[in-house]
Design a protein that fits this description.
alpha/beta
């Protein structure tokens, strides 16, 4: 079944992924492609609508990204956002110039008035806040276009030519700061493009399974299973499609959180697949002995992971295909400026050369993280795996500051479990993006049972973020922090002091090492 499709043409906008996510959230399939995509490829894609993203350039500059003029003669509705709006005006007879006065430049939240007779704003309030970020100004709009939104500083906040299906907005409807922004995008999809909303995870699952079976045939597939969301969902999907033809190698390096290795194994016991769990904790601990520098830890763990994977893979015999948990943000980012070159066989996560495979299978390649989670639920994965927080490849090794020992790992596991347990009991999981404990190498004096102690300081870390590029520290209620602190110092040996990290990113990073 061919889904209705929206094409998002990227002109260098910082919110390109967010636009695509908003479209998908409205149950319409879309893909992001660079503005240099040939017209022949765009026609072959058969979009029911096209969205031009924002961008840092000025449309009148000689080196600015430009749209192929043929796009405006395809009979396909177009929504231009910010730079994309100015591109519409520039190409269709309007005039865009640099704002001649500071008041005409708009950045941030701006009170805006909308003409609700326009399809884009139909059914929405006539006033609202929109998120602006533009220094250029549409001095003249093209013939045939109407002004359908304005602010105090700018009379040309939105334009439209409804007979042609062309719409342009100077603000960013895709960001949360714009009130009813998603509803505007939905109006473009349904009121203008005539979408029916045929993009669902249930349908994607069926289509993906059919495609996997067609590709693999009777071949064998190897998948390195980390226990993270992406690899777990990829494994579940492949297992549903080809069963025993799939081998999942789970390298349990002993650096997971409490009971995590057992949970991963239990989760995949329901599928008829070859699950290999390599229990190599002692091997990794011996390699980490005496190592304190964070980068050395990371490199050593990464290299040893490959060596163990190599050993286990040799036992399997001939492998026809290699499966990866690549998701759509990886594709968009790695394809910036040249969408055709995204991944090649030589850079598959550092896997050993001897793994002879016909092809890489990436069944999640066109999904965003939230869609991957939805698919996991469709496949019956337990919620603790579907909603598993981002977890670093080196695991707890980089949450133990200094040398990693079995004793320190045991201490950290129980403290981290208590932290997560109390957050869960308080119903706060959905208010934070990532939270964890760090066992510092700082020791301090304490008093327990009328006696002196000299034990470790544990740091708690929680952040809230939409993209993990920047993050704000989470304002956990004091009473919850108090319960966490009391439990940890009472239940976990060798910890006598708790601190809470209140540093955002930047200047800090999310992880400590």
């Amino acid at each position: 079944m061919a889904h209705e499709r929206i094409l998002v043409l990227d002109f260098g906008g910082q919110y390109n992924q967010l636009i695509a996510r908003r479209v998908r959230e409205c149950s319409v399939y879309c893909e992001v492609k660079p503005y240099t995509t040939p017209i022949s490829e765009i026609k072959a894609f058969s979009p029911i609508g096209i969205i031009f993203t924002g961008g840092p350039g000025s449309v009148y500059a000689p080196d600015s990204p430009q749209a192929d003029p043929e796009l405006f003669h395809l009979g396909i509705p177009i929504l231009g956002i910010c730079y994309g709006c100015q591109l519409l005006a520039h190409n269709l007879g309007g005039r865009v110039t640099a704002a001649q006065r500071d008041s005409a430049r708009e950045f941030g939240k701006t009170e805006t008035s909308f003409d609700t007779t326009c399809k884009l704003f139909r059914g929405l309030p006539p006033q609202g806040t929109s998120w602006m970020s533009h220094g250029d100004y549409m001095e003249k709009v093209p013939d045939g276009f109407s002004l359908v939104a304005h602010s105090e500083a700018c009379p040309t906040v939105a334009i439209c030519n409804e007979s042609k299906g062309f719409y342009g907005v100077q603000f960013h409807p895709e960001v949360n700061h714009t009130e009813n922004g998603t509803a505007m995008i939905r109006n473009f999809l349904y009121e203008v493009c005539g979408a029916s909303g045929d993009w669902t995870m249930g349908d994607y699952k069926s289509t993906a399974i059919e495609k996997i079976r067609e590709t693999v045939g009777k071949g064998k597939v190897l998948l390195a299973l980390s226990g993270g969301v992406d690899s777990s969902v990829a494994a579940a999907l492949m297992a549903e499609a080809i069963g025993e033809q799939l081998t999942c190698v789970f390298v349990d390096h002993g650096l997971m959180r409490l009971n995590e290795g057992d949970e991963v194994e239990a989760a995949f016991s329901k599928w008829n697949l070859n699950f290999v769990r390599a229990n190599v904790e002692e091997l990794f601990l011996s390699k980490l002995k005496g190592i304190t520098e964070p980068e050395k830890k990371r490199k050593l763990i990464g290299e040893e992971f490959i060596r163990v994977f190599e050993t286990e893979a040799k036992k399997i015999g001939t492998v026809d295909y290699l499966c990866q948990g690549t998701i759509y943000p990886d594709v968009i980012e790695s394809g910036a400026g040249n969408a055709a070159v995204i991944k090649s066989h030589h850079n598959v996560g550092g896997l050993p050369d001897y793994v002879d495979f016909k092809e890489i299978i990436e069944p999640l390649r066109m999904l965003f993280k939230d869609e991957v989670r939805q698919l996991g639920r469709e496949l019956g994965l337990p919620e603790y795996l579907v909603m598993r927080q981002p977890f670093p490849g080196p695991g707890l090794a980089i949450r133990v500051i200094g040398e990693v020992t079995k004793e320190k790992l045991t201490t950290l596991r129980f403290a981290d479990f208590i932290f997560r347990d109390e957050i869960s009991k308080a119903g706060l999981e959905q208010t934070m993006s990532q939270y964890f404990a760090v066992l510092t190498n700082v020791q301090s004096v304490g008093v327990m049972g009328d006696g002196r102690t000299y034990d470790y300081t544990l740091a708690l870390r929680s952040v809230t973020t939409s993209d993990f590029m920047t993050a704000d520290w989470t304002r956990i209620p004091y009473e919850v922090l108090d319960r966490i602190s009391v439990r940890i110092v009472n239940e976990v040996p060798h910890i006598n002091r708790i601190v809470y990290d209140i540093t955002s990113k930047p200047p800090s990073t999310i992880e400590w090492e």
